[in-house]
Each structure stands twice: as C-alpha cells, then as structure tokens.
Description:
Elements: E1 15-19, E2 22-25, E3 30-33, H1 36-39, H2 48-60, H3 71-84, E4 90-94, H4 97-112, E5 116-120, H5 129-133, H6 138-141, E6 151-155, H7 160-166, E7 171-176, E8 179-180, E9 186-187, H8 189-203, E10 206-210, H9 224-228, E11 234-237, E12 248-252, H10 273-288, H11 291-305, E13 311-317, E14 320-325, H12 329-338, E15 341-342, E16 351-354, H13 362-375
Parallel strand pairs: 3-15, 5-6, 5-7, 7-10, 10-11
Antiparallel strand pairs: 1-2, 2-3, 4-12, 8-9, 11-12, 13-14, 14-16
Helix pairs in contact: 2-10, 3-10, 11-13
This protein binds pyridoxal-5'-phosphate.
Amino acid sequence: MDYLAPVFAQYPLEVVAANGVWLSTRDGRQILDLYGGHAVAALGYAHRGWTAALTAQAAACNFQSNAVPMAVRARAAERLVRFSQLPFERVFFVNSGAEANENALKVAFRLTGRGKVVAVEGGFHGRTAAAGAVTWGAQNKWFGFPRAPFEVAFIARRALAAIDAQLREDTAAVIVEPVQGVGGAFDMGAEFLAALRRRCDETGALLIFDEVQCGVGRTGHPFAANLYGVVPDMITTAKALGNGFPCAALLVGPRVAPALTLDSLGTTFGGGPMASAAIEAVIDAIESERLLERVRRVGAYIRATCIVGPVIGHQGAGFLTGLITRTPAREVHAALLARGILAGTASDPQILRLLPPYILEEAHVDRLREALASIGA
Ligand SMILES: Cc1ncc(COP(=O)(O)O)c(C=O)c1O
C-alpha cells in the first residue's frame, strides 16, 4: 500500500545515496545528476562544509523561533545581503518559494494601497493562492481556489510594447522571473527587465524578481539581477539557498524596508537555526570554492559543446540552461536516463532543462555530449 499522495509523475529510479554530482540507485546504477532535485542541490551531495555546518548546528541548538535572537540567523541575513551585492536592507526568512512570493505580494499591496499585479506569461511562482494567481496557466490546471485573490494581468515574455498599457497607476507590483525556470530556462533579457524597472518608477509599482530558481548563483552571478544590471525592489529566493534544507528568503530594498514593521510578517520555521546554518554554509561554499566562476565557465562549455544529436539550440543562463530539442524533450529525457544521465523537462515541450549542481565539471559535460550524440537526431 502506497500512502504517498501522487504529487509528480516519478522517474524510474530510486535514489539510496548520493555524492558529488552522482546519484546511487537501489538497483546499483550511478546516475549523473543534471537536475539537482528541481534546482536545489547547488553544492551537490555529501558536501563536507554544508554537512558539517548542519551537524554542528543540530548539536548546538536545533531550533528557536524568531522570537528569540540567534547569532546564526543574523549572520545568515547579513551574509545573504552581502552576497547579493545589491542595495537590500532587510531579509525575511521563510520556508518555500511560494511563501516568499506570497509575502512579497502582500507587502506590495500594503505599501502601495493598490490591488492589481502584472505577471509574465510562462511564469511559475508557486501553488499557494497569491503565488498561484500570478502563475501562468494555473487557473486552467491546478489552481483549485474558488477565485483569484486579486486582479492579475499577464504580459507576453519580452513584450516591451505591452508594458505601458498593462502597468499603470493602479498596479501594486510586477512579478517576473528574470530567467524563467519551469517556463523553459527562458531569459527575459536586460532590455525587458530594464523597461519594467523604468515603468515601475513612473507608476509607483514595485518590481519583484522571483529568483526562487534562478537566484543564489545559478546564473553564474549572485542573482540574475546582477547579471542583467537591473535592481528590483524585492527578490524572492529559495531552492539553491539551502542546498536541500528547506528555506527561502524575501530580500527588500530601501523603498520596501520601512513597511516591514513589527508583527506585519510572521513564521514559525522561517529563519530557524538549521536553515540559517545551511544558508551560511551554501554562501561560504559558493564564495570559497569560486563556484560562480565555475558556473559561468562550465555553463558556457555546455552551450558550446552540447548542440549535438537531438539538440538544435540553447537558451537560459549559467546552470539554468534549456537545450532546445528537435524531438519532444521528454523523449530525449528518457533516452538520457537510459544512458545514466538525469536531466529535466519544462512546460515548453521542446526544452530539456539542465539545473546541475554548481560543482559540475567539463568532464561531466563531455558525458552529456557523448550521450546526446549517441541518441541521434
Ligand atoms: C521561479 C519559482 N518560483 C516559485 C516556486 C515555488 O517554490 P516552492 O515549490 O518552494 O514553493 C518555484 C518552484 O519551482 C519556482 O521555480
């Protein structure tokens, strides 16, 4: 009897252990992981520093809430802001990407007193009410709530001409993934993001970058905001942030920080000491192992070498890369898995999505290239 709710269709492999970029399966296979558990395993598996930090924190004090000051939580917030190299002033730690977005939207409504949000086609922001409402296509698939909690206008990706008409003085916020994840590693580009920034400044709306998937080094930069040179009012992030320990963060800049008043936000688990230790260890590793540089270098190597076999192009940035496939991506995905490589798919059926750990090396990419070449066009 299987008591688990059927959440996602499952891949035909059962993982019993993992090390580096390799998964060990119950039937004795070694699988090269280019998917990282939905972009989470940034440091890969059995990372020494991360494991030691969590072990030490578990022994020292496994939990106290935000009602009790803890140095590890304060350090995690400071490290995250410094890591971002962006003018953020406050960090609110929560537990999931959806929860971070839910809070970002709530803050935007409160601060502006307005009721409408602009979102982007293809975007994915989570499965709670507000995050689901701004997720493209959710209403027709899984949204589930009787009605959207507020008005949402969607604009097409990179549609510069649509911005002025939709983003007006009644708009509280724009929420956008600078590089869409689920949408297929689709990058919005500097021009579109800068145009959103400009229009937000004209209308008083707040710009929210959902960097749940593309943040914390995945593009080879601290955040995609750094890559594109556009500073949002808020960034939400999660996934890579904890390398598998559940955690998320809402970072806010000077316009928003005064709105984060006592008792306006809350959480039990968010910013717990284990999560904080994980965040600190992830940032430590990214910095001390120079992983941003590696993501940029090996990411470029993927794009330069892996346009072979069924792959006819690429999109995205860093280690959020979409390989454009001639045949349906799910067929390529299955063929790769049969050859010992786990990749991902996306809502775009012609995109094979790669979200590897930041420790990936060129030799691993060579295996991918050989496997793709052996599949044939
Ligand atoms: C860009 C983006 N935002 C939000 C979410 C939701 O995050 P979570 O599943 O942690 O709630 C995801 C999850 O895939 C995501 O990719």
